[in-house]
């Protein structure tokens, strides 16, 4: 582990991954500066999978839609000092939790499929699934807000 650097992890659950793609745009401008203070410990978009363990800051996008995802976000929470809900899906459950808005007939159509594949009855925002320390709204995230929130935890 790099000495004194914050271990930062970025996770995607059910969504179009638009926030983490946009985050790469922000990294293009800011990562060289941030790398003096952070180590990118987990980011599937740019590196191989590594163990979920001992993170200082976890950024999480998307919604929790399966029982397996629920266990994983609970593990991430337990291994993260700070957990930030990144984007509207993570903070509010929408737009990626659209099935929560289905009417009775649409919900009945997908019920068997959900049960057969270990899906939760409803999608959960990250905030509904675990305690979060902060949030960054926007679809995708707002760049200035991301920088403002993220840099608070680099001190
Ligand atoms: S908030 Fe929007 S851009 Fe971000 S993951 Fe959800 S749908 Fe994609």
UniProtKB/TrEMBL annotation:
<protein>
    <recommendedName>
        <fullName>NADH:ubiquinone oxidoreductase-like 20kDa subunit domain-containing protein</fullName>
    </recommendedName>
</protein>
<dbReference type="GO" id="GO:0016491">
    <property type="term" value="F:oxidoreductase activity"/>
</dbReference>
<dbReference type="InterPro" id="IPR006137">
    <property type="entry name" value="NADH_UbQ_OxRdtase-like_20kDa"/>
</dbReference>
<dbReference type="InterPro" id="IPR037024">
    <property type="entry name" value="NiFe_Hase_small_N_sf"/>
</dbReference>
<dbReference type="InterPro" id="IPR051349">
    <property type="entry name" value="Hydrogenase_assoc-protein"/>
</dbReference>
<keyword id="KW-0560">Oxidoreductase</keyword>
<feature type="domain" description="NADH:ubiquinone oxidoreductase-like 20kDa subunit">
    <location>
        <begin position="17"/>
        <end position="152"/>
    </location>
</feature>
<dbReference type="Pfam" id="PF01058">
    <property type="entry name" value="Oxidored_q6"/>
</dbReference>
<dbReference type="GO" id="GO:0051536">
    <property type="term" value="F:iron-sulfur cluster binding"/>
</dbReference>
């Amino acid at each position: 582990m790099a000495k004194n650097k914050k271990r930062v992890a970025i996770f995607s659950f059910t969504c179009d991954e638009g926030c983490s793609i946009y985050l790469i745009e922000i990294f293009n401008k800011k990562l060289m500066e941030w790398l003096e203070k952070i180590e990118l410990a987990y980011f599937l978009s740019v590196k191989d999978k590594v163990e979920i363990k001992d993170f200082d800051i976890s950024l999480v996008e998307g919604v929790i839609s399966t029982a397996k995802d629920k266990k994983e976000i609970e593990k991430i929470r337990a291994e993260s000092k700070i957990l930030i809900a990144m984007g509207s899906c993570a903070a509010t459950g929408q737009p990626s939790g659209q099935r929560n808005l289905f009417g009775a007939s649409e919900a009945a159509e997908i019920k068997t499929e959900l049960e057969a594949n270990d899906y939760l009855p409803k999608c959960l925002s990250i905030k509904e699934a675990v305690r979060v320390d902060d949030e960054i709204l926007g679809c995708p995230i707002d760049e200035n807000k991301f920088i403002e929130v993220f840099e608070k935890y680099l001190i």
